Amino acid sequence: MSKVAVITGAGSGLGQSTALRLAQEGVRIAVVDVNEKGGNETVEKVKEIGPDALFIQADVSKAEEVKKYVDQTVEHFGTIDYFFNNAGISGSGKYFLETEIDEIDKIVGINLMGALYGVRYVAEVMLKNGGGSIVNTASSAGVIGQDSVVTYSATKHGIVGLTKSMVAEYAKEGLRVNAIAPGPTETPMVKAFYEANPEMKENATAGIPQRRLGTAEEVAELVTFLLTSKAEYINGEVIRIDGGFTNTK
Ligand SMILES: NC(=O)c1ccc[n+]([C@@H]2O[C@H](COP(=O)([O-])OP(=O)(O)OC[C@H]3O[C@@H](n4cnc5c(N)ncnc54)[C@H](O)[C@@H]3O)[C@@H](O)[C@H]2O)c1
């Protein structure tokens, strides 16, 4: 039987690209997103490639909705083999002392609590069924410090801790947990931002040794490798995919 993946934030960007790449490997996909339009679009595209897909609308910052997407996935597909724990938001870009408490709560709620709840419920299913593979989405801001992203960076460093410590507890039972740390990547969100602020794109690009942004397809390729058995002995790693950006900081 073909494998089953749950992908959060699968209605756009890195989540959608990874859904389509995994579909090429015959993987069936639970498409989780708060955005119905994007989620349904991904389901249609996966089905066009071939495998079955199911859209589940959920806000990952709410534990009960996370439990719901896990339960519905198991009900529909029977199990969970792969989990791309990816939904996230950036922030206003304001300096930390100018940031409202609501914004801090929102970013932590989605990026960190959402990721913790996801692993909490998904790993339970995986361990019951003999193991599985998880990839958490960190960021360059999860491995280095940067201005204008203090809360975001705190959540992404948290993702790194979640990744490493899960391995310490559960690798012996067949769980693999890795993280990716993408640099600026041309997803719809980032494209729109840079179209409105072209000079910021020039600055960002100038700081990347390869002098270009990453693509969602490049990230999808890495996630697919890490999730599947091709990466069977890679565990607790944080893989940077950033054109050399963080290695030159
Ligand atoms: N694009 C980049 O440059 C970049 C770089 C490093 C890390 N990341 C991380 O990659 C992940 C995906 O980002 P992206 O660039 O693909 O962004 P995106 O905005 O294109 O996609 C994110 C998706 O997550 C969904 N989402 C947002 N809040 C949600 C919630 N509460 N519950 C469920 N779904 C929710 C959105 O609806 C959207 O479909 C994020 O965790 C982001 O922090 C992105």
Descriptive overview:
The chain is an alpha/beta fold. The protein has one domain: Rossmann fold (3-Layer(aba) Sandwich), CATH 3.40.50.720. It has helices at 13-24, 36-49, 63-77, 101-128, 150-170, 188-196, 198-206, 216-227, and strands spanning 4-8, 28-33, 53-57, 82-85, 132-137, 175-182, 238-241. Strands 3-2-1-4-5-6-7 form a seven-stranded parallel sheet, sandwiched between helices. Helix 1 crosses helix 8 and helix 6 (188-196) crosses helix 7. The chain is globular and about 50 Å long. The mean pLDDT is 96. It binds nicotinamide-adenine-dinucleotide. Nicotinamide-adenine-dinucleotide (NAD) binds at residues 8-9, 11-15, 33-35, 38, 59-61, 86-89, 110, 137, 139, 182, 184-185, 187-190.
Describe this structure in a few short sentences.
The chain has 249 residues and is of the alpha/beta class. 48% of the residues lie in helices and 15% in strands.
Compute the separation of the termini in Å: 45 Å
| Radius of gyration from CA coordinates | 17 Å
According to CATH, the fold-level topology is Rossmann fold
Work out the helix count: 8
Topology pattern, helix = H, strand = E: EHEHEHEHEHEHHHE
Largest sheet: 7 strands, parallel
Structural class of the helix and strand makeup?
alpha/beta
- Supply the CATH class: Alpha Beta
Number of domains: 1
Low-confidence stretches: none
Helix share, percent: 40-55%
Q: Give the distinct bound molecules.
A: nicotinamide-adenine-dinucleotide
**Widest β-sheet, arrangement of strands:** 3-2-1-4-5-6-7
Fraction in beta strands: 15-25%
CATH H-tier superfamily? NAD(P)-binding Rossmann-like Domain
What is the molecular shape?
globular
- Number of E-type strands: 7
CATH architecture: 3-Layer(aba) Sandwich
Mean pLDDT score: 96
